[in-house]
Design brief:
The complex is a heterodimer of chains A (about 120) and B (about 150). Chain A has about 120 residues and is an alpha/beta fold. Chain B contains three helices and five strands; from the N terminus they run βααββαββ. In chain B, a hairpin with a 3-residue loop joins β2 and β3. The N and C termini of chain B lie close together (about 10 Å). Classes of the chains: A alpha/beta (about 120), B alpha+beta (about 150). Chains A and B meet through α2 and α3 of A and α1, α2 and α3 of B.
């Protein structure tokens, strides 16, 4: 899986591509840990190019979410395929993490929350 | 199509590594898609292959995660695919210690656990799921029926 990150108005957008499964869950945890160590706390995970996610991938997002919420930040996810979205719904993750149709609207939701609009 | 009472069988055998589990999972999705297409004589049903991919993925990953000799190559995982005109039966076998498969409960979603979803996903995605431990092998058998069996 490829992991890249960019900044947009104080929000960190993490773009994932490929299969998000047990083979890359640790890689994801290490990558986001590095971002956390930079003091970043608000994230959008853009999953438009994620072709598959399993429970290990979901678990690594939950680990990340817990850490970020302890730091008073938040994570939102965007651009889920039907296949990925169905797993979020099956495991009830959609109840604890906000899902947006695209990363732009997810980013905007942070800005609205922070009164930047 | 004429009903075929004899099941066709294929087998994958690999050492318990996450990379091998991933390849086994991808192979399972391809086999499920091809099977559906053959039986239905139509475009593959994405839900059928996606469900199989998820279930086999979770089962294979469990084989690796609970392996006592991770990546040493001295243990084996076997994935068997059997088909007839109405169902795909997949067995995932490993040589890990016996475990209480039937005692694994549904995750407590209110607690948002970081793990423990694997067997839940397998049960949700497949139509029949059974577990046995015989002769040193754990064997999870997962059956997925074609939506409208040919009569």
């Amino acid at each position: 899986m490829k992991i890249t990150s960019t900044q947009d108005n104080g929000i960190t957008i993490i773009r994932l591509s490929g299969r998000f499964d047990a083979t890359v869950a640790d890689q994801f945890k290490e990558s986001v840990q590095q971002l956390c160590e930079k003091g970043l706390s608000n994230f959008v995970i853009d999953m438009s190019d994620v072709s598959y996610i399993d429970s290990s991938g979901l678990g690594s997002i939950i680990t990340f979410l817990r850490k970020i919420r302890l730091a008073k930040g938040d994570i939102k996810v965007a651009s889920l395929s039907d296949k990925v979205r169905s797993i979020f719904q099956l495991t009830r993750f959609h109840r604890v993490i906000e899902i947006f149709d695209n990363s732009e609207s997810a980013t905007l939701s942070f800005n609205t929350l922070h009164g930047k609009e | 199509m004429v009903r075929n009472d004899i099941m066709d069988k294929m087998e994958l055998k690999f050492s318990p590594t996450l990379k091998n589990a991933q390849m086994g999972t991808i192979a399972a999705a391809k086999i499920a898609s091809a099977f559906y297409n053959l039986i239905k004589n139509d475009d593959p049903d994405q839900n059928f292959s996606t469900d199989v991919e998820l279930a086999v993925g979770e089962a294979c990953t469990n084989c690796v995660k609970y392996s006592e000799n991770l990546d040493t190559g001295d243990k084996t995982v076997i994935v068997t695919f059997e088909t007839d005109d109405e169902k795909l039966v997949i067995q995932v076998k490993d040589q890990n210690p016996e475990f209480d498969f039937h005692g694994v409960s549904v995750p407590d979603f209110s607690e948002v656990p970081e793990g423990g979803y694997g067997i839940f996903i397998i049960r949700e995605k497949m139509d029949l799921v059974t577990y046995m431990h015989t002769n040193g092998w754990n064997c999870v058998t997962m059956t997925k029926f074609i939506a409208s069996p040919i009569i």
